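@channel sequence for tomorrow's demo:
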Amino acid sequence: MREIRLHDTRSDQLVQLRPRDTGRVGIYACGPTVYSRIHIGNARPYVVFSLLARFLAHEGYETTLVINITDVNDKIYDAARAQSRPSAELAAEMTAHYMADTETLGLGRPDHEPLASRTMGPIVDHIAALVESGHAYPAGGDVYFRVRSDEGYGSLSHRRLDDMDQGEDESGPHPPAERKEDPLDFALWKAHKPGEDTVWESPWGPGRPGWHIECSAMAEQFLGIGFDIHGGGSDLVFPHHENEAAQTRAARGQELARVWMHNGMIQFTGEKMAKSVGNIAPLHEVIERYGRDAVVMYLASGHYRQPLAFSPSELDDADRRVHRIRDALRRLESDRPSPPDMAQHKQAFFAALAEDFNTPKALGSLFEWVREANRRETGVGDADLREMLDVLGLGELTPVESVGDVAAIDPEAVALLEQRERARGERDFQTADRLRVQLRARGWEIRDGPAGPELIPAAGQ
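structure tokens (generated this afternoon):
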């Protein structure tokens, strides 16, 4: 198998992937809290870790991908209360929307998609183990984790204890701070409060779990302890993932995951995209406007660890890239081997993915392959390109449909093309550019093929 290196947040280094179980890789990625429909930012970790699982499967690993759904949370209670409806009903509706919206991405489903509401047994058992070991304590129906009891606390987020704030809501007549031994401690179990319309029994009284313990329990339930890759957005490093790691370390005496991977946020008007800010682009609306292929291409276009700018121009650019591939496919020989002397581009593609899953660098190699294929008149099979596209979730792209005789369909477009070629020959590039724009407005793009310039349907037509 090819050596694969990934950036580990804890060590802040590239580390070689060394699976716990030979030939098998377990991946857990934090999914959404379902209080409204997901936005394009929520889709980024879903796509990143789905594509990572595809790549690892291509490399010969048996992969198990788990992406959870948080359907018990303060945000759900608040949203349901604002709509005067039961919180479980809202969570179920938004879960159904999440499933439908991510299904349109065409990447298949994760192997497991656990719900917090259906994991109460393992959650309570995990909290009980922490209480028994002295790492947690009951207080007025709540249960809190003793942060200072974990010597490794802060090792994931690289923060000093004195610089930490758990961000828990301290409002109300009896704020949590009054029950905590230490302001740094965080809730594992929350006692039932008036206005909360879902409740579960526990040894500490009726209530519900805290956010962080849900993922520790769900990850362990499906992947065990010390699984290979834990993923999620960079905004989850602290406190969510720091607390996950601490809970498991304290309860089980082992690290939850070997490698922690975090994707950057999608940036909109200079800020991360977030429902709380209101600068969101719902995933289903983006797909309806630009199409599934352009959205997947867009999300693969930036390195997963870096922020990714969101704008109509970014999506338009992704659409054009998809169109370039579809245009190349129409000239390739379907289901035929690719020339061996072009294999270097495919090799560079997979080498880029093996070095911290560098999708933009991999795409660069893919388009080098496309450029070389376009320069050859005949005999180029599509096998290499299809193999690369499949790993990126674009394996079902179809060739641009032939429009037959352009002269019969749009003779004025042919005349504009001839004028443009004359202008280029006379080095009148301003006129040539103006004519290209006119052709684009008529729904045509110019491609320079082996037989000279030709007109093909423009992207989005």
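heads up for whoever presents: The two ends are 42 Å apart (CA to CA).
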